[in-house]
Amino acid sequence: MSGQLTLDGQSVAFMSGETLWDVALRNGNELPHLCHIPGLTPAGNCRACMVEVEGERVLAASCCRAAADGMKVNTASERATTARAMVLELLMSDAGEVTDTLTPQSELNRWARETGARTGRLPAHKSGSTDASHPAMTVNLDACIQCTRCLRACRDEQVNDVIGLAYRGTHAKIVFDADALMGHSSCVACGECVQACPTGALMPAKAAGMQPVAREVDSVCPYCGVGCQLTYHVGADASGAEAIHFVTGRDGPANHGRLCVKGRYGFDYVRHGERLTAPLIRRDGVAKNAADIERVKRGEVALSALFREASWEEALDVAANGLRELRDAASAGAPSALAGFGSAKGSNEEAYLFQKLVRQGFRSNNVDHCTRLCHASSVAALLEGIGSGSVSNPVEDVAHSELIFLIGANPSSNHPVAASWIKNAVKRGAKLVLADPRQTPLARFAHWHLQFRPDTDVALLNGLLHVIIHEGLTDPAFIASRVNGFEALKAAVEEATPERMADICGIDAETIRAVARAYATSKASMILWGMGISQHVHGTDNARCLISLAMTTGQIGRAGTGLHPLRGQNNVQGASDAGLIPMMLPNYQRVSNTAAREHFEALWGVPIDDKPGLTVVEVMNAIHAGTVRGMYIEGENPAMSDPDLDHARAALAKLKHLVVQDIFPTETAILADVILPASAHAEKWGSYTNTDRLIQVGRPALTPPGSARQDLWAIEQIGRRLGLDWDYWRDADGDGHAATETPVARVYEEMRSVMAPLTGVSWSRLRSEEAVVTPAMREDAPGEAVVFVDHFPTSDGRASLAATRFAPSVEQVSADYPFVLATGRILQHWHGGAMTRRAQTLEALAPEPLFNMHPDDAADAGLLDGDAICVTSHHGEVNARVAVESSVQRGQLFIPFAYWEAAANKLTGSALDPFGKIPGFKVTAVRVTAAARPDLHA
Fold this sequence. Notes:
Layout: E1 2-7, E2 10-15, H1 20-26, E3 50-53, E4 60-61, E5 72-74, H2 78-102, H3 107-115, E6 130-131, E7 137-140, H4 149-157, E8 163-166, E9 173-176, H5 192-196, E10 202-204, E11 213-220, E12 229-236, E13 242-249, H6 261-265, E14 280-282, H7 292-298, H8 303-306, E15 307-309, H9 312-329, E16 338-341, H10 348-362, E17 367-368, H11 376-386, E18 403-407, H12 411-414, H13 416-427, E19 431-435, E20 448-450, H14 457-470, H15 476-482, E21 483-484, H16 486-493, H17 498-505, H18 509-521, E22 525-529, H19 531-534, H20 539-553, E23 562-565, H21 572-577, E24 584-585, E25 589-590, H22 594-604, H23 616-625, E26 630-634, H24 638-641, H25 645-654, E27 657-662, E28 674-677, E29 686-689, E30 694-698, H26 711-721, H27 741-753, H28 763-769, E31 771-773, E32 799-800, E33 819-824, H29 840-845, E34 850-853, H30 855-861, E35 868-873, E36 877-884, E37 892-896, E38 924-930
Parallel strand pairs: 1-5, 16-17, 16-26, 18-19, 18-22, 19-20, 21-32, 22-23, 26-27, 27-28, 33-37, 34-36
Antiparallel strand pairs: 1-2, 3-4, 3-5, 6-7, 7-10, 8-9, 11-12, 12-13, 14-15, 14-28, 24-25, 29-30, 30-31, 33-38, 34-37, 35-36, 35-38
C-alpha cells in the first residue's frame, strides 16, 4: 500500500508503514532526531523532530507519526523550527556542557548547531556521576538526556532487558537492573546501548583520551559464524602508531548493526605485545617437549630460549626443505608422511590455497581443519540425507517461524546476535523449544525447556518421531514426492514410545507428545542446532534424527522452516566449501569420484589420491604410529583444541618437522621447528562465508606488525619451494607485508571456477555488494537464501532418511567417575582463547576458568562457590575453581575450553563418531576432589 502527501510544498509518495520522518529522509531532508534511529521502535520523547501538519492544532513528532494520504506537512515553518531549536536548547542545558568532553561524535551538539539552538541561557543541570565499574563501558549520566535509545536497544533489539528508566520527575534516571552499578548488573556487554547513545552518556571504557579517528574501514567480524558486518575506527595510539580505537556494527544482512561483546570489544588482540613479528627457528640442540607448553605459558621458560629469530628467506627455506625431504623420502605407494591443518578463522582464499598446497605440493589428502571438531557429524548426516552440508535457511528466518526448535546450542554465548533474532521472534509470538541438558540463558524465553539427560539425544528425538508417525502428523504428500526411506524409519521408531524414551532421556512422555505435535502442526517450524548435537560419538545419528523430523513433516523449503547447524567459527562454512577436508575436494566433490578427481588433476597438473586423507584425530594417531612425520599448521591450535590433549601434544612434539604459521606463539607453535608470523583478520583482504551461506568481504584496517606477513603470501612461498609454479603475487607487493587485494582476487577467481555455488559471485560483484548469499548462479540475480524449495541436490532429487536407535556412548559414569563433563564456549571467550584472552576487555570480563557444578552436588561434596577442585577423567586431570550454579543438572559439570591454565581437553577422550570422525567432547566421565594445592596452575 502507498499514497501521496505534500511535503514542504512538493507532492511525494510514501509506502505503507513509513513515518513522516522516513518520508522526509528518503526525500533528502534529515530532520533532527535524538530519541529515534532506524531499527528502534519510535518513541517520540525527545521532540526534536517536530513538524507542522496542516489542520492540526499541535505539532507532530515526525518519527512516530504515520504518513497518511493527502497530508500536508511543513518541516520548515517558523513554528516547527522554533520548537525544534527550543527543544535542543533545553536538552543542551541538561547535557551540553559534558557531551563534547566525552565524544567528538555527539549528536546532541551536532543538532544544536544545525538548528541554531541558543546555549547558556539556562542553568546547566547535573544529574548523576560517572560509573566506571564495567570493564567495557563507562556510564556518564551527566550527559544523559533520557532519550531511551539505550533502553530500547537493550530491550527491543538485543532483548537483554538490563536497562530501565526509574524514579520520577527530576530524580528519573537510566538504571541497570534494580539500580545496580553497571559492572554489577546482568549486562552482557553487547554494547548496543553505547552504539545507540547520542550524547556520550554511555561510552567504551577506553574512549577517554583517544586521538581522533583518522579513517573508518568496513569489514566483517572475526569470531563466530553469524558473520556480523562492522566498521573499524582507526587512529593513532599514544605512541603514534595506528590502532583500532573502537568498533561499530554495520547494517549487514546477518546483523543489521548488532554486535556482541566479542565483536565490539574483542579487537585489541591485534596489537597485543605477544604478536609474532619475526620468523623463528628452533635452536640447535633444543628438543621438543610437550611440557614446554605450560612452562612457556607460566613464564618459566622464555620463547627465546627455544627459538632464534631468522630472516623470512631462511625460515621459508628451512620450513619447505623439511617438508620436501619427508615427502620425497616416502616410497612409492606408501601413505604420505605429511599432513596439513588449515584454519576456519582464515579466509576462503587461504583455505582454498592451503588445501591445494597439501594436495598438489604434499601429494596427500591429509588436510583438515576445526570443522572436524565441531560440525563434522552434522555435515556427514546432511550430505548423506539431503546431498548438501549447508543450512537450508538463514538464522534470521526465525522471524517467519511459528515454532523454533533449538537443540544442543547456546547461541546466547556462542552466537549472541543469532540469539537476538530468536528472542525477537519469541516476543512476536513464536514458540521456542529449547532442548539442552543445561539451563542456558534462552531458557527463560522457552515455551518448553527439555532438560534431558546428557548423551540421550537420540532417545528424545526418536520419541518425537514416534509420536509424529504414530499420530499421523506427517506430511504424506511431501514424503511421497521427496523422501526415501520412510518405511524403514517408521519401523525403527515403532518401539521408541514416549514412555520408553522418557525412562532414558528424563523428559516426561506427555511433554514429548506436546512438543512433537507442536512441531509437526506448526505452519513453519525451524530446527537450529549446535555442537551439543554434533560433538558426540553418535553425533551423526543425532543429526540424522533432526533431518528425519524435518522430512517427515515437510518442514523445509519454505520461509521459517528448515535445518540450520549454527557454525562455530567465522569461516567454518567457507573453509569446508573450499575443500579443507580430507575426503572432499572443493565444493564437496569426493576424492573417490573419478570425474571430479580427474578435473582437478588436469587443473593442478598432479595425480590426486583416490583415498580420503586422515582427519584431525587420525593424524595424531598416525604420528604416534610413525606414518605421519611432518606437518604444516596454519592458524590452527590442536595443542588446545584436540581431545585427549596429552596424547595430542605428545604427538606434535614427536613430529620430525612441524611448521606453524600463526599470529601468536600458541601452544602448538611452542612445539614447532619453524614459526612463521602471520597476519591477523583485521590486517588482510579476504572473503568469508557465514553460517547463512552469505559470502562477505573482509578488509584490512592495519598493517601487520614488524615483519609479519600475509598468510596467502607465506603459503605461496612454501608452495614455490616445493616445486609449484604459483604466481598469484605477480606484480604485487613482493614481500607479502602489505595487504594486497590483487593476489587475493586471483585466488578467489580460481576458487570460483571450481565451485558452482559461486558462479554468479565474481570478486568485483562481491566488492561492490559487500555480501552475496550463495548459491548464486548468475551475476545479475540474487542468491538463494532459502534452498531445497522443490528438490534436494541428490541423484534423484529426494532426501534419504537414516533410521537410528539409541545407544549409550563409550564414556559412562561409574562409582569411580560419577559425573558427566561437557566442554564448550562462554560468551567472553572463543575457541582456544588465542585471540580473546589477549583482548583486554574480554579477559577482564572472564579472567579465570571455572567448573560449573549443581548446588546439591557441591553440598554433597562439601564444596563452596570458589573452592579449588581437581577434576579427573580416564584421560587426564585439570585443576580449577568451582562455580556453584543451577545451570547444570545434578551429576553434570561444565567447563569452557579457552583456558590454557585448565585445558579442558586434557579430560576428553579420543573415541570418534564412526561417520563424522568427530570426538565426543560433550560426554566425559569424571570425578571431583578438593584440589590438593592452593596454586591451581602449579
